[in-house]
Amino acid sequence: MRTRVAIVVALLLAAAVVAWWLLRDDPTDHRLTRPEDLSAATRAIAEAVPDALRESGTPGAEVAVTEDGEVAWSQGFGVDRTTVLQAGSISKSVAAAAVLTLAEEGLVDLDTPVTAYLRTWSLPGDFPDPDAVTLRRLLSHTAGIGTPGYLGRPAARPLPTTAQALDGIWQSEEVDAYAYSGGGFTIAQEVVEEVTGEPFAETVGRTVLAPLGMTSSGYACTQGGPEAGAGYRYAEAAAAGLCTTADDLARFAAWLGSDDPRAVAMRAPAAGTGEHYGLGTEIDGDTVGHLGVNRGFHAELRVDPAAGVGLVVLTNGDRGGEVVDAVFRAWHDAG
């Protein structure tokens, strides 16, 4: 009982930290516009990041820029630009791309209740509306699933299976109303594993990472042991487990801004979200992407398909959000 209470308190604290970051009084605009001179923007970023790292006490950052579907520039600060870092909830965007690929292959349907695919694990019997739990609603945070986020587990602790990680999951009666839920993505992860018969990481590698040339990305830094560089580990790979580099994540950003039907579907506002969330993507006007916050890491991915530009930032510090803000200010100040 004490353990469960401690877990609940820890999750509430984690959610409070993320909520504070999202709702803080910060004037920095994270929407993208295409600068008149992209090289001037990248020079401004390169000048701003070292000061932001020093002032925030963040050890390192990687930044990458995309232009017209290509990685146009990337640089590491305090770390090499090929250093693998945790991407936090940007994992949800990559997970959604994998699910949409399975839908394109005919393995799943986004609007079929997930109970049709679950054989090993089942939705709890006290869910008030199990038929409302579809992949589309899970990917848009509108299935009423609890558990907003995850704190991760120390590397020395055994990593549970996806089904074990879902112990205690619950559903509210507020279906078709946006409520951010990492737990919903963990249910989607279980569906993927059951329909493919393979670990979630393998499915993502086959359907998303390999096709996009994201050769340095995977889940070892959050699912392996200390030898794999894992700090806090996440069984909830779809929600928080992606490990990547700025170059790799920029390749995903370029794809997300493309006319690929899966990317277009991810960018479209989902019902019940007030047009602020798609399928695994946050929407702010013409800019789409995702924020990523794990303990010790802060990341952001943004792309404006119409403008043909994208911006990716990865940091390895709890105050890395200040570095992210500095990058976006430099982008806008450069015009």
Structure description:
This protein has a single domain, classed as Beta-lactamase. β8 (287-294) and β9 form a beta hairpin. It is an alpha+beta fold. The protein has a six-stranded antiparallel β-sheet with strand order 2-1-10-9-8-7, with helices on both faces. The chain has a two-stranded antiparallel sheet with strand order 3-6. The protein is globular and about 55 Å long. The protein is built from twelve helices and ten strands. The longest helix is centred in the N-terminal third of the chain and has 22 residues, at 2-23.
| Helix fraction by DSSP (H/I, runs of at least 4) | 25-40%
The main sheet orders its strands as 2-1-10-9-8-7
pLDDT < 50 stretches: 1-24
Please state the overall shape, judged from the principal axes of the Cα atoms.
globular
Put simply, the count of helices is 12
Number of strands: 10
Biggest sheet overview = 6 strands, antiparallel
* CATH homologous superfamily label: DD-peptidase/beta-lactamase superfamily
CATH architecture: 3-Layer(aba) Sandwich
The structural domain count equals 1
What fold name stands as the CATH topology? Beta-lactamase
Strand content: 5-15%
Instruction: Supply the CATH class.
Output: Alpha Beta
Q: Mean pLDDT, as a whole number? A: 92
Structural class, judged by helices and strands?
Answer: alpha+beta
What is the string of helix and strand elements?
HHEEEHHEHHHHEHEHHEEEEH
* Measured distance between first and last alpha carbons: 55 Å
Rounded Rg: 19 Å
